[in-house]
Design goal:
The complex is a heterodimer of chains A (302) and B (446). Chain A has 302 residues and is an alpha/beta fold. Chain A has 2 domains: 3-119 and 253-289, D-Maltodextrin-Binding Protein, domain 2; 128-152 and 164-238, Periplasmic binding protein-like II (D-Maltodextrin-Binding Protein, domain 2, 3-Layer(aba) Sandwich). Chain A contains 12 helices and 12 strands. The termini of chain A are far apart. Chain B is mainly alpha-helical. Chain B has one domain: Amino acid/polyamine transporter I (Up-down Bundle), CATH 1.20.1740. Chain B has helices at residues 10-22, 29-36, 43-64, 70-110, 121-138, 142-153, 155-167, 174-179, 188-199, 208-211, 219-246, 251-255, 260-268, 271-305, 323-339, 343-378, 382-405, 408-428, 434-444. In chain B, helix 3 (43-64) packs across helix 16. The chains are: A alpha/beta (302), B mainly alpha (446). The interface between A and B is large, with 23 and 54 residues.
Chain lengths: 302, 446
């Protein structure tokens, strides 16, 4: 297993592929104009942001993409613009955008420098928060630690009930930004723990529900959604604490600044018109002061 | 009453002290220290010196006051009968609770061999109650037998822990220790202040020699020596083993190990050896529980002998074991263990365990201060007096800090328990004030 080698290969491959449409001179706005179609890429199982629904999609991010579609209609003078929904898998989200298979990836993702080498990003549309799901009967020391308190208060003496047993298992998404974060912080979390990685949120939540893992770290809204999906009967809870914040945005082609400007204009307008706040109320359980402050930071002024 | 062959000798008593102190506390200590880094070893400087000061004062109490009663007897010298009662009462509660907790931990370690015990609250409770009664019955044979069993189970600590302190140096790599020095890059003062709580209470248990006075041959000589040697031995083994282990196992691995001693032996030899070490640790843990159950019963017996606890605690069988008192303690502890089946009660129980450390420390202070009167009565020379007062002040300061560091919840709970103790003593006090009461009655009604 030569990981750096594999990464380089993948990177080269992605670069080679991404330059193909470039050479063809493809350009998002051109493509939309000539095909009369705006292709929305989305991840089908990331409710409440985007989810598959018949031959369409719905969710917070989809609603925002439809705002962008409206903007395109008026800016390009294309009242009969068709909107097409194209599900995208996690593994090819970057290539789908860079190769022009989709015009925009509605489902928000965290921008990284590595990704920015291949694609570009809109202004943030949401602030992802790394949170954690545990069983409701989780051990008190684990809850204390996850809530940012000392694992054990009170003296450590011969009678302190041993926690060696309570070897905790943390789970997180494979290869996600959170995996590195957890590895780095695990020792400071002061509970003896090992880390396992899972392919998706479903699997992670299931591990916790079945007692094979004790805590699963992932994005707060996605976790909440998983829990309601599975029902309270599964005896899980998402803690209120947010470990790390990360603004997330929509992927767009790297070589079309005009399109990107149009997207950012539509999104900034959605911020100032209150459409985003409405979307929060509808899909994301409402706003609070911090979130509203971030709205003002994310939206670009006229 | 009982002839000396049924009593404990110096060796038995010293091992009792060492095993009682280290028995269950040492098993996880290297992991907890590794999480802070090897810099935490510096905390031993404070805690070992403070603890040796306490042990020295207790042994001085034992030298000049060889009466039965342990901490409570030393306390009575300065704080009279109510001091004796409160000391016994607090210490008894402390042990009764702590022993259940030690049993729970021991069952926890056993899950490595009997996985069923780890499958839920009920198996854990069954295992705990089983252990409580096993160690209760094993004490029926009297102090002599307890000492002999202790002398056997102590190898469970000596082989892995003390053994590591000696042979571990062949595997010791200074650069591993250096790399583990301060992985979190804390300021030295901060790292040490975070580490002190790990080792601050590690020496609780040094008083068990004094508690066993009744069951020891030549207590005037053996109790002070066992207290000193036991504490010194534990200090040396604690410091050496936690140092050497951090120079063998890389910090990352050690900080997340749930069985550090098993891990180090698995690294030095083979996983098989690691398992054997784990089994030995379980044995030592059970051995320490046996010692503590013995100390619990002895404390109750000595207090009942003073007419301050129910008389049934002082009835001994032909082997000099207070069997009825032991059974009463066992029943009390079974009830506590049963309550931990409910998760809410289990959380409450861990608060009780913290409280038990407080009710262990208050008797330390009352007993240590007794030394001042004990020395006065014994008419010691002024040189010894001055020396002992200096050490005494260090010891009491250490105890006060340990008490403070227990945290406000534990100290509050401990204070309430103490206040209830005064109520209880109120009912008992008339037993010791009969003479003036009769005089008064005569004066009013001739």
């Amino acid at each position: 297993m030569n990981v750096p080698f594999a990464t380089t290969t993948r990177l080269l491959l992605a670069l080679a592929l991404s330059t193909l449409p470039l050479m063809a001179g493809a350009n998002t706005l051109e493509r939309v104009r000539s095909s009369h179609t705006f292709t929305l890429g989305y991840m089908p199982d990331l409710a409440p942001f985007s989810k598959h629904e018949g031959d369409k999609a719905s969710g917070y991010a989809i609603d925002l993409c439809l705002k962008i579609a409206d903007k395109l209609k008026s800016e390009l003078g294309l009242p009969d613009l068709k909107v097409r929904y194209q599900p995208v898998q996690v593994s090819d989200q970057v290539s789908a955008v860079s190769q022009g298979k989709v015009d925009i990836l509605c489902t928000p993702t965290p921008p990284t420098l590595e990704r920015r080498k291949m694609i570009s990003y809109s202004i943030p549309i949401y602030t992802a928060g790394l949170s954690v799901v545990v069983r409701k009967d989780a051990a008190a020391p684990l809850l204390n630690v996850l809530n940012g308190q000392v694992a054990y208060t009170g003296p450590t003496w011969r009678a302190s009930i041993n926690n060696g047993l309570a070897n905790q298992t943390y789970a997180t998404l494979e290869g996600g930004v959170t995996e590195d974060w957890i590895r780095e912080r695990m020792r400071l979390l002061n509970v003896i723990a090992s880390l396992v990685t899972v392919a998706n949120n479903d699997e992670g939540v299931k591990l916790v529900a079945e007692g094979k893992a004790d805590a699963f770290f992932s994005e707060r809204m996605l976790l909440r959604n998983e829990i309601t999906k599975e029902g309270a009967a599964r005896n899980l809870m998402v803690l209120d604490r947010i470990f790390e914040y990360s603004p997330v945005a929509m992927m767009v082609d790297r070589n079309d600044e005009d399109f990107r400007l149009l997207v950012d204009t539509a999104l900034s307008e959605a911020y100032s018109s209150g459409a985003i706040e409405k979307g929060y109320d509808q899909y994301l359980g409402g706003t609070d002061d911090t979130v509203k402050k971030l709205f003002r930071i994310y939206a670009l002024p006229k | 009453m009982a002839d000396s062959s049924k009593k404990m000798g110096l060796m038995g008593l010293t091992t009792l002290v060492t095993v009682n102190m280290m028995g269950s506390g040492i098993i996880m200590l290297p992991t907890n220290m590794a999480q802070l880094g090897a810099v935490s070893l510096l905390s031993w400087i404070f805690t070992a010196i403070g603890s040796m000061a306490i042990a020295y004062c207790f042994s001085q109490c034992g030298v000049f006051c060889s009466r039965s009663g342990g901490l409570s007897a030393y306390t009575e010298e300065a704080h009279s009968k109510s001091g004796f009662f409160l000391c016994s009462y607090l210490y008894f509660l402390s042990l009764a609770i702590a022993n259940v907790a030690v049993a729970i931990s021991a069952v926890g370690y056993m899950t490595a061999f009997v996985p069923w015990l780890g499958t839920g609250a009920i198996p854990l409770c069954v295992g705990t109650i089983g252990l409580i009664w096993l160690t209760t019955f094993a004490n029926f044979g009297g102090p002599g037998i307890t000492g002999k069993i202790g002398a056997f189970t102590v190898w469970g600590v000596i082989i892995p822990v003390a053994g590591l302190s000696i042979i571990g140096w062949f595997w010791f790599k200074p650069d591993v220790l250096a790399a583990a020095w301060n992985p979190n890059n804390l300021a030295i003062s901060e790292a040490v202040s975070k580490a002190i709580p790990l080792t601050l209470w590690a020496f609780l248990g040094m008083e068990s020699a004094a508690q066993a006075t009744d069951a020891v041959e030549d207590p005037k000589r053996n109790v002070p020596l066992a207290c000193l040697f036991g504490t010194l031995g534990a200090a040396v083994v604690y410091v050496l083993s936690t140092t050497v282990i951090q120079g063998i196992i890389p910090n990352d691995e050690l900080a997340k190990s749930s069985a550090p001693f098993a891990l180090v032996y698995a690294t030095m030899f083979s996983p098989m050896v690691g398992n054997i070490v784990m089994a030995l640790a379980v044995m030592a843990c059970v051995g320490s529980l046996l010692g503590w159950q013995f100390t619990l019963a002895q404390t109750a017996k000595m207090t009942a002998d003073q007419n301050l606890f129910l008389k049934l605690f002082s009835k001994v069988n032909s082997m000099n074991a207070p069997v009825i008192g032991m059974i009463v303690c066992g029943v009390l502890q079974t009830l506590m263990a049963l309550s931990t089946i409910s998760p809410d009660a289990a959380a409450q129980f861990s608060k009780l365990v913290s409280l038990a450390a407080v009710t262990n420390l208050i008797p330390y202070i009352t007993a240590l201060t007794g030394l001042l009167v004990i020395m006065h009565k014994a008419g010691v020379s002024s040189a010894i007096h001055t020396r002992n007062v200096v050490v005494l002040l260090i010891a009491v300061t250490y105890c006060l800090y340990a008490l403070y560091a227990c945290g406000k919840d534990a100290v509050m709970g401990g204070t309430l328990v103490l206040a209830v103790g005064y109520l209880l003593y109120g009912f008992l006090a008339k037993r010791f004030t009969e003479a003036p009461a009769t005089n008064q009655a005569r004066a009013v009604n001739p």
